[in-house]
Each structure stands twice: as C-alpha cells, then as structure tokens.
Specification:
Number of strands: 0
Number of helices: 10
Radius of gyration: 20 Å
Order of helices and strands: HHHHHHHHHH
Helix content: over 70%
Largest sheet: none
C-alpha cells in the first residue's frame, strides 16, 4: 500500500522546498536595489517589475522594499563619513540639505498612499523611465556645468533640486536621476549633482523608512524569524552593493554623460510595455 502524505506534511514539505527559492529571489532583488537606487535608472521601477517577473511575495513586499532602501541609505551614510567632519563645520551645507529635502518630505507625506498604488502600474513605470531618459538628453545638450564644489550650491539651487525630487514618488522616475538632472539644470557638474543627490537621499530615505516601520509596528503585523532573516540579509547585501555603486557612479560621471543611462531606460521601458501588452 502506497503512503499518502497528510495535508500538514504537504505544507511542511512545500514550505522547506520554497524557502531556498524565496531566499534566491530576495538576494536578486537586494542586488538590483543596491545598483538601481544609486544609478539614475529607478530602483522602484526595477523592484516593481521584478516583483511581478519573479512572483516574489512575502507578507509585506512593501516593508521588504523599505528595508532594501534603508540599506542603501546606510551605505551612503558610510560613504560620506570621512567628509562629515568637514560638513559639520559648514552649517550652511546642512541648511541646504534641509531645504533640499523639505519639498519631498512634505509632499511625500500628503501623497504617500496614492504614490504607493502606482507601484503596481507597469505602464506608468515604463513611461516614467522613457520620460526621464528624454530629460537626460535635454539637460546634457542645453546645460553646461559651472559649479564643482558643494560650497558653491546656493539655497535656491537646493530648493530647486528638492522640488524636482518630488517627481521621484512616481515609480520609474528615479530619485537620483531626477535630482542629478535638476542639479545639472542649475549649473552643477555631474559629480557635484550626484554628491548633492546622495546627501539628500540619506535623511530622506532613512526618515521615510522609519515612518513606515512605525506605521507597521502599530498594526497587527509580525515578522516570522525566517522573514526577519531575509530582511536583514537582503538589507545588508543591498547596502554593500550600493556603497560600491555610488563610488563607481561618482567616478563615471567625471568623464561620461548620462546618455548611457538614458538609452538603458528607454530599452527597459519598451521591454516593460511589450511584456504588459503580450
């Protein structure tokens, strides 16, 4: 007589078979986040697309994505640590950072729920990727750098960059991409625009991440030990990858334009549209 497993045994077997697959998918997402949060190609767009492509589902995909973003923000914090002593002595720079994150902090709080719903709209992501690419071409053609030091950034420059940063709540736009574009539009060099973009990212991402974690903690939400492990390992991987991605981007932008990233965004946007239609 052939043995037939019980329902409980089937659940147990399926759970342990699926866990390595979940870990594998989580690590892929962490690596992609570490790269795309830094490079101007949209981390939210990539994560939303990959969640769909990989069929990656935890009890809270949103909280998982937040953990990955926090990992990248901590990586940027670590990258800028050697400069923080100099920054601390320059109170005007901290004021510029506050001015730069103010529009996104306020508007982001007001449109938070609506913006999150856009994460499931692949067409919006694709169009935002392509639209951002066109902005890259325009700013590279019409604007020439005049500033190459953080001290040269004015309060007006910081506010302008902060206003454009609000657009990054649309998935596919790219926070780093739109702030670099805004910086170039104000006469910053590519490297300077990227540095200022990273400085704005640290408090903004950490602040939004903390708010989300507090929101979740007030509900009836508990992470299992396995999910907590996935979150922590993925966040660490995302941070490590982001650290090296940021160092690479700063060096890359010293000698190269944004056109490579623009073409990549267009290609990815077209692929997403085709996959959505088929």
């Amino acid at each position: 007589m052939q043995y037939a497993p019980t329902g409980a045994e089937i659940v147990f077997i399926n759970y342990h078979v699926s866990m390595p697959i979940i870990w594998f998918k989580a690590i892929i997402l962490a690596i992609v986040q570490g790269i795309t949060e830094i490079l101007p190609i949209s981390s939210s767009g990539h994560l939303a697309f990959l969640h769909e492509l990989l069929d990656f589902q935890l009890e809270s995909n949103l909280l998982f994505d937040i953990a990955l973003h926090v990992g990248t923000a901590l990586a940027l914090l670590f990258l800028f640590l050697p400069k923080f002593k100099k920054f601390w002595q320059d109170k005007s720079l901290w004021l510029k950072v506050i001015i730069g994150i103010f529009p996104a902090a306020i508007i982001g709080f007001l449109i938070e729920d609506y913006a999150e719903r856009l994460n499931d709209n692949l067409l919006v992501i694709a169009l935002a990727l392509i639209g951002g690419a066109l902005l890259f071409f325009l700013v590279e053609h019409f604007f020439k750098p005049k500033q190459d030091d953080l001290k040269e950034i004015s309060n007006q420059d910081a506010f302008w960059v902060g206003l454009w940063q609000v657009l990054s709540f649309i998935p596919g736009v790219s926070r780093s991409g739109i702030t670099i574009v805004a910086g170039l539009g104000r006469g910053m060099s590519r490297r300077l625009a990227a540095e200022f973009s990273f400085l704005l990212a640290i408090p903004l991402i950490l602040g939004m991440g903390l708010k989300k974690i507090l929101d979740f903690s007030q509900g009836n939400f508990n992470l299992s030990s396995n999910e907590l492990g996935i979150f922590m390992v993925s966040m660490s991987i995302s941070g490590i990858i982001a650290y090296f991605s940021a160092k690479y981007l700063l060096k890359f932008l010293e000698k190269h334009s944004l056109q490579f990233f623009a073409w990549y965004r267009i290609l990815l946007g077209v692929i997403i549209i085709l996959l959505s239609v088929l």
